[in-house]
Amino acid sequence: MRDQSLVEPEVPANLNARYLTRHSSLLSGRDAQLRYRRCVGPELPPRRGSSILELGCGQVLMLVQVSADRYQVVLGVEISPEEVAMSHQLGIRDVELPSINEVLSTSRKWDSTLESDVLAHLNKVDAMSTPSQIPDSLRRCGSLAIRVSNAATKAGLSTQSSDLIHQTAFSPRSVNQAVSAVGFVNPVCTNLRPSVVGWRSTVCAVAWHIVSSLSAWIQSLEGGRSGWDISSRNFILVARKPLPKMAKR
Fold it and tell me: How many Å apart are CA 185 and CA 242, to the nearest integer?
């Protein structure tokens, strides 16, 4: 029997209540736009009437981009009251405070679900149970896009340890394992490369590409396993709900 004294306590409510002012900060909308166009936008359904759900929407920078693309049904779920209020100030009214389980347990169906740093805030048991609820909430051929810190890099581990609320770290291989275990297919991980907005950022992006390629090559020599090409601090995994199996005649 598990010793209850070893069970991790719940996150103090005041950490989430003042998350924006005490830990997070206002982020760059320009950077979010570039990342959306490069990594998230191409994976969303082509129909503008599709429904999009974002879990852990934070300051709704991604939802702002989704709304700008004229998707008609958009819903964000966030546990920080401050960030919900910020989203309302930005004109995104459909951001709510219910638990993720409450949203996923309803009969409402979505064409695509986005997760931004949600899994890092959960212990391993919850990090597995949360994705397991998503397939049933998706329509046929629905997609899941997850943004996580990269535990396979020093920079990713630094991000993981910089927030008291973070509990779990994932590498490309382990998050692939998690979503595949609950039924998603064709998972693909993508680097979140530095955004290019001018000559300085172009130089940084070229330097990042050279250093990360060299690091991936060295790691492949040691391990010879896939996944080393994902070397950014954060990365995005995209997977799809499998087609229903046809009944045998």
Answer: 6
Range(s) of the domain holding residue 29: 4-193+229-240
For the chain, what is the domain count? 1
71 inside domain: yes
Instruction: Tell me how crowded residue 151 is: count the other CB atoms within 10 A of its CB.
Output: 19
Residues constituting the chain: 249
- Residue 6's pLDDT band, with cuts at 50, 70 and 90, is very low
Burial of 208 (0-12, 13-18, 19+ CB in 10 A): middle
Q: Which helix (H) or strand (E) holds 187?
A: strand 185-191
Report the distance separating Cα 218 and Cα 235, nearest Å: 20
Q: Residue 204 and residue 194: Cα distance in Å, rounded?
A: 7
pTM of the model: 0.79
Q: Residue 152 corresponds to which tokens in the numbers above?
A: 């396979």
| CATH code (residue 53) | 3.40.50.150
